[in-house]
């Protein structure tokens, strides 16, 4: 085993994209890490993921850019269509000029390709220990760091007849809450209740390529926007399947996320959409539905040697496809600060928060503001279309620079 800088590990609650990236970034800088994942195995829910250049730059800095991009599709353009008229609203080329400007292409990938690349690198690093079936339920600060509480194993809980028992404590030098939108660590640090329903739900499906209309198979995501709805589809896994997502404002706070929805259900809700994306919806046939949840930005994610990262810190709607990108940027920033502060995690987490909170909150806010543009109807739709009309690629790039150019802390470890 390589010599670690720390005796007690840094505990990371949650082994999603953010948690694994954080573990890898820390281990590459000499810190021993213990990842505690509640699920029976590491994996990702859902299928497609848009991976913007700022996210790919983090994956490069973590040394997993090549495997992460291997099966990804590097897209030709970003396209937004008017779901009323069928006209193109936004068409931003993502070729050589885009790549030169941002240092990376824009990709679409299977979630498992990105998560799998991070997982393989974590599994291959001797400073990282990965544990499954380890649900973090709380923590106590100690003079030497943090005592992390883990729920008793399911079987033990069932035997004891307990709802949620404390099973084990892990002593760690610091704790990172990378435990997602329903973060338990956030409940303790921020204590702002459950994330709220955004008013939108999403119907998701995977379409085998032979069922996908041939004339709608393009090497880029196609997004169709109408009042209160949008639909997106793109190929993943080497064009073997298409990822399909249809988002609609229904005001629902709960839906049955465990069973499939038949075609008639979204068809009724998307009646105002253009016939073209509805052809894709018909090809999908069956769907899973989920409530889209969100929060507004908060001023603090940190309590001494405990901090939040990714959706635990700043859950956002997916309207600019940046949630995983922000989790990745958080991860590398936190690791760089741990190195710069030479393992003083109280100080490192304060600096991490100071650096990240404005950018992540800006993206969180912008994502929600996109509701206004994506889901406009009536005269607002015409205003939206006039805003984008005639915009050159260069004018679009100028507006995207702040987001897609990687911040300076996105860098590989020294040496
Ligand atoms: C419909 C939709 C589409 C999206 N599309 C995109 C996109 O195209 N591009 C993009 O960048 N982002 C996208 N996002 C956002 C992205 O999925 C998330 O922002 C990202 O997955 C957050 O990563 P995370 O690691 O913070 O959290 P998660 O991925 O939620 O991982 C959290 C992990 O913690 C585990 N966990 C939870 N609680 C505990 C606990 N108490 N103890 C231990 N483990 C625990 C979970 O099992 C999970 O493995 C989308 C989101 C949605 C909903």
Please, could you describe this protein's structure?
- The protein is α/β, with parallel strands linked by helices and 415 residues long.
- The chain has two domains: 10-194 and 296-404, 3-Layer(bba) Sandwich (FAD/NAD(P)-binding domain), CATH 3.50.50.60; 196-294, D-Amino Acid Oxidase, Chain A, domain 2 (2-Layer Sandwich), CATH 3.30.9.
- It has helices at residues 17-28, 53-61, 65-70, 96-102, 111-123, 154-160, 184-189, 264-269, 275-284, 323-340, 345-374, 378-388, 393-404, and strands spanning 10-13, 33-36, 48-51, 73-74, 77-82, 88-93, 107-110, 128-131, 136-142, 145-151, 166-172, 174-177, 196-208, 222-226, 229-236, 241-249, 260-262, 286-294, 306-308.
- An eight-stranded mixed sheet has the order 6-5-14-15-16-13-18-17, sandwiched between helices. It has a five-stranded parallel sheet with strand order 8-2-1-12-19. It has a three-stranded antiparallel sheet with strand order 3-7-4.
- The longest helix is centred in the last third of the chain and has 30 residues, at 345-374.
- 48% of the residues are buried.
- The model has no long low-confidence stretch (mean pLDDT 95).
- The structure holds flavin-adenine dinucleotide (FAD).
Task: Please sum up the structure shown.
The chain is 35% helix and 26% strand.
**End-to-end CA span:** 19 Å
Biggest sheet layout: 8 strands, mixed
CATH superfamily of the largest domain: FAD/NAD(P)-binding domain
So what's the oligomer here?
single chain
Number of helices: 13
Whole-number total of structural domains: 2
Structural class: alpha/beta
List segments where confidence is low: pLDDT < 50 over at least 5 consecutive residues.
none
Strand content: 25-35%
